[in-house]
Write a structure and sequence with these properties.
By secondary structure, the chain is mainly α. The chain is about 60% helix and about 0% strand. α6 packs antiparallel against α7, α10 crosses α11 (about 185-195) and α12 runs antiparallel to α13. The chain is elongated, with a radius of gyration of 26 Å.
Length: about 250
């Protein structure tokens, strides 16, 4: 798709805003400086906004309204997605392209491997968008996959390797259990130790976490007080945390 000597109809405001949300995402998008340089480079006036996303959306929408054409949005996407910008971060290019395509498919467009906009199938539902975006990440989001799982297998998802993505997702469950509980066990022992109820019918990990937190709070103020020492001793007791207190 070329912008030379041709005017493209304005895009819906919701589409422009969704594009800005992706390209100026708080954690994974362009930096504020990068946005400013890109806008200046293609002659679009910058705009004020409480955050990067709204700033970019406002700048693009104002220029689109002034031009009565979406050429400015097309040009910004083309510049932002130029492959040379991602020579050292090809995974970032793939993620942004997939996310953009999940939005652009609603107006019959897509970003190709060269970072250019091209014509494609137009859809009207989210399910169709996930299918036509050709993105494993989009499909997993559509199915309600927890964001933490996506974090653990980002590279495998971008490579569209379903087997290794599933493997990394399974491993992430154990890592997450260790992070939340402080346990250092593996496999079935970890799951049993964290989730299986003890003698009192309560999983031992929440009991240990509660006792440890109470100990830390009390010992921070009075290192030698009996309350803090007692809580710490109980937190370290496998028998007590497993439900030994009613015995």
């Amino acid at each position: 798709m070329t912008t030379a000597k041709k005017t493209f109809d304005p895009w819906p405001a919701a589409t422009v805003t969704a594009v800005a949300d992706i390209l100026a995402d708080t954690s994974e998008g362009l930096s504020g400086r990068e946005i400013g340089l890109l806008l200046a480079g293609i002659g679009i006036a910058d705009a004020d906004g409480p955050n990067k996303r709204e700033r970019l959306a406002r700048a693009l929408l104002l220029r689109q309204d002034r031009d009565r054409a979406s050429n400015c949005v097309v040009r910004f996407i083309t510049e932002a997605m130029a492959p040379v910008r991602y020579a050292r971060e090809p995974g970032v290019f793939s993620r942004r392209r997939d996310d953009l395509n999940e939005v652009l498919v609603h107006i019959g467009l897509r970003v190709n491997d060269a970072g250019k906009l091209a014509r494609g199938t137009a859809v009207s539902t989210l399910d169709e968008a996930a299918q036509h975006a050709n993105s494993l990440r989009a499909e997993l989001r559509r199915r309600g996959t927890h964001p933490k799982l996506l974090e653990y297998c980002t590279q495998e998802i971008l490579a569209r390797n379903a087997f290794h993505a599933s493997l990394e997702a399974a491993k992430s469950v154990f890592d997450r259990l260790r992070q939340l509980t402080g346990e250092q066990l593996d496999g079935a022992r970890l799951v049993d130790g964290v989730l299986m109820p003890g003698a009192a019918g309560v999983p031992r990990a929440p009991v240990r976490a509660y006792l440890a937190a109470e100990a830390e709070t009390r010992l921070a103020d009075r290192p030698n007080r009996w309350e803090g020492v007692t809580y710490r001793a109980l937190a370290e007791s496998e028998t007590f945390c497993a439900g030994g207190w009613p015995q």
